[in-house]
Amino acid sequence: MASSSSPKRIALSITALCALASCGAPSREQARDRATTHSCDWYASCGEIGSGQTYETRDACDVDVRSSWNDLWPAADCSGTIDGDALDVCLKAIDITDCANGFDFFNTVFNKCGKDKVCAG
């Protein structure tokens, strides 16, 4: 016998899953923040955050990289027009970019994550 709270539990579960899976297209700000997190995770995994490295701290990375994504995906071109599937491709590309390969880095930033790919409009 199902309890009367089952529909509520199902609705809450669906809502939670959508939040985790980012149901719907993300906003430009959400896309920028996700790209910032993936990028700074990448910098950290490549040993580029710390004393004497590209970024002294994770916060410094977050500020600088967030600004770079803002420039790459300007609000005038991307507000409300992020392609969620293309963003996922971009984020996966960031995650697997070779630390020691400058070409791979630029391929990720400008080809996989370029405005023409991620900004749907």
Please, could you describe this protein's structure?
With 121 residues, the protein is mostly helical. It is 67% helix and 0% strand. It is globular and about 40 Å long.
Strand content: under 5%
- Overall residue-averaged pLDDT value: 86
Terminus-to-terminus distance: 50 Å
Radius of gyration: 18 Å
Low-confidence spans: 10-22
SSE class: mainly alpha
Count of discrete alpha- or pi-helical segments spanning 4 or more residues:
7
> Helicity range of the residues?
55-70%
Largest beta-sheet characterization? none
Overall shape: it is: globular
Tally the beta strands.
0
Q: Sketch the topology as an H/E string, one letter per element.
A: HHHHHHH
Concise account of the structure shown:
This protein is mainly alpha-helical and 121 residues long. 67% of the residues lie in helices and 0% in strands. It starts with 5 loop residues before the first helix and ends with a helix.
What does the secondary structure layout of this molecule look like, with pairings?
Elements: H1 6-21, H2 28-45, H3 58-72, H4 75-78, H5 84-96, H6 102-112, H7 115-118
Helix pairs in contact: 2-3, 2-5, 5-6
